[in-house]
Task: structure prediction
Amino acid sequence: MEIGVVKIGGSILSDVEPRLKEAADLVSRGWKLVLVHGGGRLVDEYERRLGMEPRIVVHPSGVRSRYTSWEELEVFLMVMAGLVAKRIQYTLAGLGVKSQSLTGLDGLSIEAKRKERIVIVNERGRPQAVPGGYTGRITRVDGTYLEHVLSRVDVAVVSPVAYGVSDGRVVPLNVDGDQMAAAIAGALKAPLALVTDVPGVIVDGGVVGRLKPEEAEELAKRVGKGMNMKLMMAARAVKGGAPRASIGDAGLEDLLSGTKGTVITLEDAQP
Result:
C-alpha cells in the first residue's frame, strides 16, 4: 500500500473540508494516509473559557511553543484528541472514508522524552531555564503499529500527543505537530506534506524549490518563526527515512509527490 503523511495546521482547520476531500480522492486511488492535525487556537479558546490564559514561550532559536502545565495538558487532550480529531473523523465519514483517531498512547506507539527543563527568552530578552512542563521530544515511533492500523482503515487521524515516563509513571505529553508528522514519516519511510497557507518557503520574494536536508537546516536559521520549525522537521523526516518532505499550500498529491512547494529531499532534481 502507498502511504503518505500529511500535517494540517490549526490555521487551516477552520476550512479543512477541501483538504479532506483531497484526502478522500487519494484514498479512492489506493493511498493510505496518516493525518496529523494541529489546533492550538482552539485549545487557547477553551482554556480561556475555563479561566486559563495560554502561555506561549519563545526559545533562543526563535521557535515558539506552548508551555504546558498539567492543567493545560488536560484541556489540550480534551480539545485535540477529542473535539478536533472527531470533527475530522465525522467529515471523513461523510466522504465515505474510514478512519481511526490515535494518540501516541494508543498501542504505546509514539514515545517522547519529557523535557525536564527548557530554555526560553524571558521578558528582558535573555535566555532563562524554566521547568519543562508536560511537553516532550519524540524518541520512538512504532511504525509497525501504524501500518497495522492502516491495514484496517483508510486514514489514521493522529493528535499531537505522545507518552513518556516521568517519576516512574506513564504520562501524556504535548508534542509539536510538525515534529510528530516528521517522526511518523521517517518511521514509515513515507513522503511528508506539511500543509501551510503559503506556497512554500519564501526568500527574496520567491518560493525556494528543492533543498537537501543540510540546506534546509541552514535556511531555518534565516527565516521567520513557524517556518523555521517546518524546515527543521522536514529535514529531520528525510534524514529519518522519508523520501521527501514538502512545505506549501498546493494539492496534497502535488505535495506528496514533490512537484510543488518547497521540497526537502536527498533525490536529485529531475532533468
